[in-house]
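Hallway conversation turned thread

IA: we were arguing at lunch whether anyone had actually written out ABC transporter substrate-binding protein end to end. Turns out nobody had. So, for the record, here is the sequence (325 residues) and right after it the structure tokens. Reply here if something looks off.
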Amino acid sequence: MGACSTAPITDSANSSTAQDNILRSGPQTAALEGPDVEPIADNPVPVLPVTVNSVGGGRVTVADASRIIAIDRSGTLANIVFSLGLGERVVARDRSTVIPEAGQLPLITDSGHSVNIEAVLAADPSVVLIDESVNPPGTIDQLRSAGITVVVFAKDRTIASTGPLITAVAGALGVPDQGRALAARTDAEIEAARASVPERARGSKMAFLYLRGERFKLLAGPGSGADDLIEAIGGVDAGTAAGLTSSFTTVDAEAMINADPAVILVMTQGAESVGGIDKVLQLPGLAQTDAGRNRRVVQMDQAEILTFGPDTGRVLAALAEAIYV
């Protein structure tokens, strides 16, 4: 496995005594409170046609939003559509869209997030919302060649991009007023979550580990989205602080020890893939970190933790509640 070898980064804020005063010890689960989706409006009527920007494809005119499919690796686009109050118009879902409201819809992506073109065509969408990360290559061109209206969005998912993405999706579906209202609500929830973190709690090193079985361990770094999440709840991204230059880097025991996080964040499904939280704590190098010694592992569902959609503020609040005393 590859590794990043840098000297441990230590400071007074990360001393054992200070951590004990501000961080919860032992495994924690962060979970959203309230409904899975809280629509900003009740089935608003789109005002169409509209012509909007499409990433990599100039301008696209959307004339019909009666049958919507939204596709991306994180389920963010579909979450936005449902949160706009247009969920009844969604006719199929990607595998990352796991909200109960979409549970009975046919799947159009496989376990590797690749789009099944035939399944999309069978759903007969009037518009497809998709982002640049879609697989396999050529998917967007195939859909357009089949006569489907396709609007492409940027693949970046950060706190700063959340509001603009919401308004862009709403604009493409002809409900701009609802988009502005949803973005404003989301921004307010994000700021409230930021403000809830006590000043004394800021500065603890936290690492996001992406796990898929014991042999596939990636430490998040700059540009991963996890760094943005960690900073928003008052932490310091351990991967970035340790000198990582890629968004996700394969790590070994030495790299984990050198990063020395006080808290480990994981997706619940990632933890399950190695046998649960106890097995996460047995991964090479973790026992020698501050997080490992204090069993500070926080898990959160993969459909929530890095989606950066309308639930972002609630995600931040749930993580802060799970991390801080």
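OS: looked through it. Residues 1-15 have pLDDT under 50 and may be disordered.
IA: good, adding that to the notes. The CA atoms of residues 230 and 237 lie 6 Å apart.
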